[in-house]
Every structure is written in structure tokens, then in C-alpha cells.
Please model this.
Amino acid sequence: MKRIVVISLIVLVIGSMVLIPLLKTDTTTNEVNASGAVFLFKENLAVNYASNVNISLKVVDPEVTKLEVIIQDSTYQTWNQPKGVLKFHLPTEKLLVGTKEIRLIAYKGSQLISEDARLIRVLSNEKPIVLTANVVATTPHNPTHFTQGLEFNNNVLYESTGQNGESKVAKINLTNGEPTLKIGLDANYFGEGITVFKNLVYQLTWQQQKCFVYDKESLVLQKDIPYTGEGWGLCNDGTYLIMSDGTERLYFRDPETFEIKKIIEVYDQFGPKIKLNELEYINGKIYANVWMEDQLLVIDPATGKVNAIVDCKDVIAQGRGTGEVLNGIAYNPTTKKTYLTGKNWSKIVEVSIK
Ligand SMILES: [Ca+2]
Model:
């Protein structure tokens, strides 16, 4: 019996000698790069926008002569002849919400000896207000239209529809929901979001990585623009086209070149809001459908923060018919009226959001 106890103790001691250092290394440092200096926080640390956060780091190698902290590709702070545990203030008020990379680089003289790169998530510091989309009126919507884009321009309603073989871009008569002019896409294209910018209509495709560009009067195709990734929703702020791709990210693109000029990540106080779909730019805010959800998000385009959530249950009850999910937001600047619809819905619903 004594022998079993002794053997068990030996196994425990040896086991812990092997395991504990491994566990420690795993949770606090990145072993491969731990030779110079390491951050003392765990990957994916969540912090609140504009909150007071201090980050600690530890100099592991006494011969380190210089440390550099890089936040989002810009040098944020440096130390010469650093020793022991150091702290710095994380500029949460200058970072937009979303996932940010932060790197700690250690040098001996001019030689880079280690790099510790980690992610921090900046959450929104505000709780979105809850609004309701109240039904004002309904008009017919063609239930064969799998709505993916909806927007007014000069009092004309434009609609883009999806599904292979059924995709089109059309001008819609709001009183009966029928096209007054329409252009079909080849069957291998799946239409997605649209926006009208200057005299052109831009139409995304889902997975074909091509944006079709039409004359807004005749809908005659002018050109197509390639891009990488999926296309979901589209709107514009008068300067940039704003595009969703089914994630929490919104891409601000140059209308001429389609070059990405800015990316925001849409976050509330708990984390990212994914599956952003059809979009609409209304009075300085981005309104977004969220795929498979009965609510809209109202997003601050400067920060990515969700300012409000719009409950659309009544709209769905009166507009969906035998159709699918809520998708399609259009604001008419001429009449200041807002309309919602969905994929294969039987109605377009004029709403008042309060
Ligand atoms: Ca829209």
C-alpha cells in the first residue's frame, strides 16, 4: 500500500513538473515568440469603446533594449531599456468598435527578437434603443420577386432580385408593384444589393464577384466591376458605395474604382452583428436588414456602433403573405417616406419608425 502511495506521489510530482509549465505558457505567452517580451492579457480580450483600459506586458529577456507596441499597423508606444512589467493606456476612444490587432515587438539593438501579436475586441459602449416600424400603408409587391435590393432615386423605385435564372434589376411602379422597365441577368448570376449613385445603378451579385453598372434611366448595362468575396447589400452615402457581405463588416468603396476606402465592423455592447444584408442610408445612418431576423439595425457609419434596433413584427404580419424573410429597405427623399418588404412578399409596406 505504501509503495502505491509513493509511486502515485512520484507520478503526480513528475506530471505536474511537465504539465504546469506547459499550461502556464499556453495561457499567458506565445512560446515561439516569448523570447523577448509578452503581453499579459489573453487573446480576444473584450474592452468597451472609450473605456479606461491599461494593458500590461512583461519583459522576459533582460537584454531587450527596445520595445514597440503597434496598434492596427501604427506605432503607438515605445520603451528604451525596458525592464520587468510595464503598462500602457489602450486608446479605446480612438479605435472603432470591432476586432483590432495589437503587436508587441522586442529588439536587441537593431535586431528584432520577438513579436507577440494578439486580438482585442472593442465592444460598443452604448445599449441600442428599441424602435418599432409601424405600418402606415401597404401596396402590392410582386411575390415572384426575391428582393435583394430596394432604393428610390428621383422618386423612382428600383428593385434588384435574386435566384439563378430569375435575377433582374427593375424600375417599379409603386402602386401595383410591377416593373415599368426591367433587365434580366444571365442564369449563372444571382442578383443582390443595388444603389443608385449619380446617373448609374450598381447591382451586386452574390458569389460571382461582379458588380453590374447600368444607366439609371434606360437600365442599359454600362460596365461590370470585379471584386473579391460575396456581395449582399448595397447603399451609398453620397461619396462612397457601402456594401455588406454577410458578415459584420461594411465596406466603403470608391464608386469609380470599387477600391475599398474604409471598413467598419458593426458591434453592439455584446459583440459583432453578423449577416448584415440589404442596406439603406437614411439621414446620416445606415439601416440594415439582418438575414433571418425580424428587426433592422440602425448603425452609426462613423463608428460601427448599433444605435437602435427596429422591431418589424407588425410589418411582417401585414406584408409577408407566403413570402420569405424581411429584406429590402427604401427611403424616398422626395416624400420622406420609408418602405420595407421581403423576399417573395406580397406587399411593400410604408412604415413610420418610432
Ligand atoms: Ca436599400
